[in-house]
Amino acid sequence: MENGFADIPTEEEIASGKFALKVLRYLQREPGLIEVSVYEALTKPDRKALVAWVLKHSIECKLTTDQMARVLACANSTVLRKSFKALGKTINSEPGAQPKLSPEQYPVLLETVEMLQPAISKFLAIPKTSRALGETLSYLKKDYPRACEFLSQNIHRFRQALEDPTLLQRAKKSKEGRSRVLAEAMAGANYQLTFSTSRERVRRARLTQTTSL
To answer: Which of 120, 178, 206, 212 is a good FRET partner for 188, with 20 to 30 A between their CA atoms?
Structure first.
C-alpha cells in the first residue's frame, strides 16, 4: 500500500522467500502516508472501495496481465505462507551458530534496560488513543531521545512485546513493574534474543554485577 505498484515482485522472488523478507522489513517500521479514503477502506474494511482503488491504480500504471497476476498473488494468504516457508528454509540452512551474548556484553545490556525503562514507563502512563505507536514514540522523543530511537528502530518487536501474553502476566499490578519487564525483554533486541532469553540474560548480568562489587 505504501509504495503502490512501484515494485512488483517476480515469481522467483515470491517463491524463494525474498518477497516474504521484504514484507517483514516493511512490518518493522511504521507505514507512510496514504490516502484518507484508502485508510478508511482498510480499517472498516470496505472491499468495494479497495477494489476500486486497486483498479484505478492498475489502469494508471498500465499493468500487464502477468504483473496484475503477481500483484493479486501478493495478497493471497496461501502464496504468502509459501513465501515465508521458503524464507524459513533459507535462514535455517545458513551455516553458523545463532547469535549469543557473552558476559563481556552484560554491562551494555544493563545500560540498555536503564535507558529504556523511564521511557517505557512514561509510554504506559499515556492514555490509550488512536495515535499510532510510532507517533507516540516521536512525541516522547524530546524527553527520551536515545530510548525512543532504540524503540523506533525495533518498533515491530516493541509492538509484539506490548501484546505478548507471557509478558502481560508479569507485574500486572504496577506500571513501574511492567515497564521494567518490557525494558528487560527489549534490551536484547540488537542481539536477536527472544523476550525470555533477554530477561534471563539481564538477570545474569545483575547477578554478575552484584558479585563483582
So the answer is: 212
